[in-house]
Design brief:
5 helices
Length: 137
């Protein structure tokens, strides 16, 4: 209808579409202004690195808007904008300290400051699990 107003009288369009003028103008107003709840919800969602849901975001949205708002309203705003929480990746243990391999003696004893270059070399060890057992690489 927005494009057709240029070609036809608004009264004819209201009659053809069976709508009231007040409904048309309120629809125009809704198109122009983004929902303040959606804006506040999206800002809070991005502030929390996309990892927070409606219960956590509600307090931030209340502070941003300066008025009370329910958790359900924030949840609906998230759904309307198709914002989904990302789960934090679970910590994966990569060190196997319970191996039966011989451990080298600690000759350096955390004295990393040396007077000459190439006097002390430090490195990391990697254990690879194979069918025969752990292999040090």
């Amino acid at each position: 209808m927005k494009e057709q107003v240029k070609n036809y009288r608004p009264a004819a369009l209201y009659e053809a579409l069976d709508i009231k003028p007040s409904g048309y103008y309120s629809w125009l107003k809704r198109l122009k202004t983004p929902n303040e709840i959606d804006v506040a919800t999206k800002n809070a969602f991005e502030f929390h690195k996309k990892r927070a849901g409606a219960p956590c975001l509600t307090e931030d949205v209340i502070k941003a808007l300066g008025r009370p708002i329910s958790v359900r309203t924030v949840g609906r705003s998230l759904a309307r904008q198709q914002l989904r929480c990302r789960r934090k990746k679970q910590f994966k243990v990569t060190t196997d300290s319970k191996h039966r391999l011989k451990v080298a003696p600690n000759i350096l004893k955390r004295q990393f400051d040396v007077d000459k270059p190439n006097k002390v070399w430090v490195s990391d060890m990697t254990y690879l699990k194979t069918l025969q057992g752990c292999v040090v690489a």
